[in-house]
Structure of Hydroxysteroid dehydrogenase-like protein 2:
Amino acid sequence: KLAGCTLFITGASRGIGKAIALKAAKDGANIVIAAKTAEPHPTLPGTIYTAAKEIEAAGGKALPCIVNVREEQQIINAVEKAVKTFGGIDILVNNASAISLTGTLETATKKVNLMMDVNVRGTYLTSKACLPHLRKSKNPHILNLSPPMNLNPMWFKNHCAYTISKYGMSMCVLGMAEEFRGEVAVNALWPKTAIHTAAMDMLGGAGIEKQCRKTDILADAAYCILTKPKTFTGNFIIDEVLLREEGVKDFDVYAIAPGHPLMPDFFLDVEIDTTAMKQERYEKKLSGSQQEGADGAKVKTESAAAKLSGPVAETFRVIQGAMTEEYVRSTQGVFQFELSGDGGGTWYIDLKTKGGSAGFGKPPVTADVVMSMSSADFVKMFTGKLKPPLAFMSGKLRIKGNMALALKLEKILSQLNSKL
């Protein structure tokens, strides 16, 4: 269906952009790889040239172009080169994106600028440069990799700048779909679950891939959208929802680890675990009835003792016992935990002061990271039943302070899990 069509894809040297390119290449499409990486990156896989080889091996024609979407002239040059090489542009995929999951006070100005420049401004300027050529195509499409706009404050409170930048891409869909209705289709595509990419490895750490799907699911969903008529416009599409409508029934083929629980993606409200809520209510009711004794003071003493003898206290005892100078030397951070529920209160892990320490109360020195969550989720997190990225993305964990140090905690947890 896409044979002979020319796709201009930003950020196509790896990940989702490359997956969409390879899917179209199988039809014999022309792919303009508009991305920054010309020289091999020390940690990230692929360049525009290695992607070009893969695209041509899959049956397409490739035009690698060095494009930093922050630089308007680089975008214009690549668009002109694409038109000169392939005679026009039929499809634009705005995939290039920057991410920093940090709070307002923790987000450096250069990070704010990067996200706004790449996500919002880059999407806008690339669309602007391609639109005159898209209007000449028989079935033109713009597809932005951006979410439906969900104004639940939960999606703003932990990473306000990132959310604004991604919603900026979505607003481009909202405005341009209406502005160019009847001429160019403009849609947004977003995954229902986390997708395994180099960025996800960086954010989630080792083992995160088991909770992710392959990039293939977005490639298949993008293909469905880009082969629809241009009257299909102004839609905010979730990959799994669209593919189910198209008749796909087996989603295990997209899983990195079939059968393993999947992490929901950002901006999609997850279904509340009512079983866990009922259990929590039952436990509260039970603890309330136990406190209806004649000797109120005695009950209070017992609950204070319980705080230092329950699962939370036991977890901190194991952490204290597992402390090593190596942990302290490699981490250099102090973590404070504000826990609600049974065994709650303020707890800490000091991996900065010589010897390290962990326990109840405020840390001996100012915390670098403050994490707020329920006691039950804290225990799940430290016993490997709940991954920190999933806890954070689903709103169960709030983080204030140094996000890079917070990510280091994932590594510590994986080393401690065997002892907990």
